[in-house]
Specification:
about 220 residues; alpha/beta; 6-stranded mixed β-sheet; 4-stranded antiparallel β-sheet; globular; binds adenosine-5'-diphosphate; binds magnesium ion
C-alpha cells in the first residue's frame, strides 16, 4: 500500500534522511525507533508529502504521491498524521478539532463519530474546551481522535504516546491498534523510546543519522 524508494532529504549540510526505502502493506505495523535528531520526523513528513524530498519516490496504492516534482497532500490520500507537537487548531473547540476532517459527512453522523472517539479516549468531558484549556496529555488524545476520525487507511504517528502516563499510554496504544485493525490501515509509528517501540510490536526498524536499519526480532 505504501512504498518508499531511496528517499533523500538534506538541509544545507545536514543529511536528515539518507536514501531510505521501506514497504508497508495494508493492516501492517512498522515501528521506527531512533535517537532525537536521527531524522524520524523528517522521514514521516516526507512520507506524508508535507516535505519535498531531494530525490526518491513514494507510491501509495500504486500511484506516485511524493517525488522531487510533486507531493500529494495528506487530505487527498486517506492519510492520517499525528504531529509530534499536537498542532491543534487554537480557535476551535476539542469537538471541532476532532470533527475537522469530517465535513463531507452529514452533521449528525460526524457528531456520532466525534463522540464515539472521545468516549473511547476518555475525553468526552473536554469536548467544549479550547486547546489552551487542555493539558499536554489531553491535547494528545484530541490530536489522536482527530487523526482517526476520517477513517484513514494510512496512519503516520510521530511520538504518539508522548505526554501520556503509563496506564493511559497502554489504553491509547490499544485503541489505536483496534481502530487501525478495524480500518485495515497501514500504521507507521516513530518513537525515541525503546520500551514503547517494543510494546507496539510489528516490524521494527532503527533510524541512525538518517539511515534506516531493520532490527532482527529474537524469539
Ligand atoms: P527526530 O524527529 O528523529 O528527532 P528530525 O527529523 O526532527 O529528527 O531532525 C533530523 C535532523 O534534521 C536534525 O539534525 C534536525 O536539526 C534537522 N532538521 C529537521 N528539520 C529541519 C529544517 N526544517 N531545517 C533545517 N534542519 C532541519
Ligand atoms: Mg521528531
Amino acid at each position: 500500500m505504501l512504498e518508499a524508494r531511496a528517499i533523500h532529504k538534506s538541509y544545507d549540510s545536514i543529511q536528515a534522511v539518507r536514501d531510505v526505502s521501506i514497504h508497508i502493506g495494508r493492516g501492517e505495523t512498522v515501528v521506527i525507533q531512533g535517537a532525537s535528531g536521527s531524522g524520524k520526523t523528517t522521514f514521516l513528513r516526507l512520507l506524508a508529502g508535507l516535505e519535498k524530498p531531494d530525490r526518491g519516490t513514494v507510491w501509495q496504492d500504486g500511484q506516485v504521491v511524493v517525488s522531487a516534482d510533486e507531493c500529494v497532500p495528506p487530505h487527498r490520500r486517506a492519510l492520517g498524521f499525528v504531529f509530534q507537537e499536537s498542532a491543534l487548531w487554537p480557535h476551535l473547540s476539542a469537538a471541532d478539532n476532532i470533527g475537522f476532517g469530517l465535513e463531507s459527512l452529514p452533521r449528525g453522523e460526524a457528531q456520532i463519530r466525534v463522540h464515539h472517539l472521545a468516549h473511547l479516549l476518555g475525553i468526552e468531558e473536554l469536548l467544549t474546551r479550547h486547546p489552551h484549556e487542555l493539558s499536554g496529555g489531553q491535547a494528545r488524545r484530541v490530536a489522536i481522535a482527530r487523526t482517526l476520525a476520517p477513517r484513514p487507511t494510512l496512519l503516520l504517528l510521530d511520538e504518539p504516546l508522548v505526554h501520556l502516563d503509563r496506564d493511559l499510554s497502554e489504553q491509547v496504544m490499544m485503541l489505536i491498534r483496534q481502530e487501525s485493525q478495524g480500518l485495515n490501515a497501514a500504521l507507521v509509528v516513530v518513537t525515541h523510546d525503546h520500551d514503547e517501540a517494543d510494546r507496539w510490536g510489528g516490524q521494527r526498524f532503527r533510524m541512525i543519522q538518517g539511515c534506516l536499519e531493520a532490527v532482527k526480532s529474537y524469539g
